[in-house]
User: Which sequence fits this backbone?
């Protein structure tokens, strides 16, 4: 069985992959075994669905699946008003149920999935039309980020468990700045270079989505 060492944010995962039959694989990650099936038909259906929802993406912020899985329960409907951090749906992946939360406050424009749907990584789960105040504050945040220097953004959706550094502190390349919990695992987010923390955009307990700014470095 082929064995791979996969490094994600300075953490190493031992991954073993064995093909059981066509489009069916046994995957062992750090001793935990899962059976994965690949279906070309499901992928094709989801691609069509994704294309159909493309116009809605223009209307507001989009929430995308971080990994393949099954929608267990949709918690909101079109037209609902939601707050930042509110759960939109429950997604089962790798035999774990995960609440998918909104990274902005606003109105639900579209929910292109339903209970029981299979989704692929990158598929649109929900489209949110952000509040005007949210949009303007986001613009200000992006503006100040560019002035603060190099901005480190989140590579996964999750919750900030601990902030290990303060603004104005010196850090070395590879030194942990905060801890992010995603998929029930804690991941250290490290500084990409030597420098000074100019700004921390999140607090402990904050929910973040892929691409959200975490901290900036000069």
Assistant:
């Amino acid at each position: 069985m082929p064995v791979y060492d996969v490094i994600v944010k300075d953490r190493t995962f031992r991954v073993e992959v064995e093909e059981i039959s066509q489009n069916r694989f046994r995957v062992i990650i750090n001793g935990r075994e899962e059976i994965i099936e690949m279906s070309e038909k499901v992928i094709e259906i989801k691609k069509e669905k994704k294309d159909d929802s493309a116009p809605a993406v223009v209307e507001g912020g989009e929430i995308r699946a971080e990994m393949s899985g099954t929608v267990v329960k949709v918690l909101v409907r079109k037209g609902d008003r939601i707050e930042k951090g509110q759960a939109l749906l429950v997604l089962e992946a790798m035999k774990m149920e995960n609440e998918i939360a909104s990274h902005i406050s606003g109105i639900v424009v579209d929910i292109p999935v339903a209970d029981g749907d299979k989704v692929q990584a990158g598929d649109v789960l929900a489209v949110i039309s952000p509040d005007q105040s949210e949009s303007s504050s986001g613009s200000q945040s992006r503006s100040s980020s560019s002035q603060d220097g190099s901005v480190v953004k989140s590579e996964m959706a999750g919750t900030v468990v601990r902030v290990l550094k303060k603004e104005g502190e010196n850090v070395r390349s590879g030194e942990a700045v905060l801890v992010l919990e995603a998929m029930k695992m804690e991941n250290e987010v490290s500084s990409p270079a030597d420098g000074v923390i100019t700004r921390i955009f999140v607090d402990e307990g904050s929910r973040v989505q892929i691409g959200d700014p975490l901290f900036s470095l000069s």
